[in-house]
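User: Need the bound-state model for MU-OXO-diiron:
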Amino acid sequence: MDTELREGIHWVGYVDWNVRDFHGYRTKSGSTYNSYIVQDEKTAIIDTVKAPYASVLLDHIRSHTPFDKVDYLVVNHAEPDHSGSISAVMAACPNATLICDAKCWKILGMHYDTTDWPHQIVKSGETLSLGKRTLQFLETPMVHWPESMFTYIPEEKLLFSMDAFGQHYASASRFDDTEPLDVVLHEAKTYFANIVMLYARPIRNTLAAASGLDIEIIAPSHGVIWRKNVGAILKAYQDWTHHKPRKKVLIVYDTMWKSTEMMANAIAEGVLESEVDLRLYNVNASHITELATEVLEASGVAVGSPTLNMTLMPQMACLLTYWKGLRPAEKVGFAFGSYGWSKNGGPTEVEAYLKEMKFDLVQPALHVQFVPTKDDLEACRGAGRLLAQKALENHTRLHQQEEI
Ligand code: FEO
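Assistant: Bound-state model below.
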C-alpha cells in the first residue's frame, strides 16, 4: 500500500473496514483513523488512532523509525477516535513531547492521565521547526470540537486538517486519485452532513482563515487524502458551509394507514410539475444518516406524520430530533399529515420542529382527517407546486448571495 504523501511523510493510521456505527452515524463504508509521521531532522507524529488499534499504529511507526527517535506527537483533536492511542504512543516513545493548543490540553486531561506527558502548548500562527520542514499551527475552534487545530507544512504545501474534509470511508488505497471520485465526494458529503453541518459557520471562518495557505495536499483524519481533487473538496465545503442548495425538494413522511403516504405522493405530483429534483422517503425505509445527507442540499422540504397517541410518529420524532441538532439551514418547507380525532397531533408537532429549525414555512401545516378526499389530494398537489416554486426561489437567492 502506498502511504507516502511526500518524501519522509507517511500515513501510519488504521483502516477500520467493519465499523458500522459512529455515535449514531451509520458508517456503511467503514472508516479510517489517519495518523501521519513526518521525518526530518526531528520526527513528528500527527494524531493517533482509536484505542483498540494502538498496536497497529505503533507497528506502523516502528516500520519508519525507532520509538526513541520520535520527538513530537501533535494532537490536532482530542476526540477519542484520534486521541485514543496517545497514552500508548507517549509510553512507547520516551523522547516525545506532546504538542497541542491550550483547550486541547485541558480536554485531554479530562480523558487521560496526562501527569507525566511532556507537552508544549501552541497557538494559532506559532511554528515548530523540524529541520528542513516547519509545522505551522492554526486553531480551528468547533471544527469539530472547541480545541480543534490544523497543522500545516508550508514547505510541502500540506495541510493536516483533522476532521475537516474527512470521510468515513475504508479503502485499499490512501489517496483520492486511486478511489472513485464520485463515491469519495458522496462520503465527504455524508460526513459533513452528519458530523459538522451544525458547525457550518465556524468551518466557514476557518476556511477564510486558511484561505491564504498554499495547499497541494489535504490530509484529513478520516478517509482518503486529497492530492488530485483539492479544488473539488474545497469548492464542496464552500457550498455546504454557505448552505447553497441544489434545485431539489425532499419529502419525508411516516404513515400509519397510508393516508399520510397518499398525501406525500400527491405533494410529489405537484412538485414534479416544476423542473426540480425530487427525493421521496418513508422515514422507516432509510437510516437517519442518509436523511441528514439528503436534507443538506435540499432547497425545499415537506415533512409528514400522522397523529399517533396525540403526537407525531416516533421514527419521525427521531429524525426531526437528529435534524434539529444538526441544524440544516436556509430551507423552505411545510408540515403535513393525517389525524383521526385529535387535530393538534402529528402535523402540528412536525411544524413546531420546522419552526424551531427556522425553516421558512411556505404555508400552514396540511391536516387531513382519517382519509384524504379528492379535494384534500388536490390541496396536497397545490402545496407541492407552491413548495417547488418557493424552493426554486430559495435556490436562486442563496446562489446569488455573497459568500461571506
Ligand atoms: Fe474524528 Fe471529531 O473526531
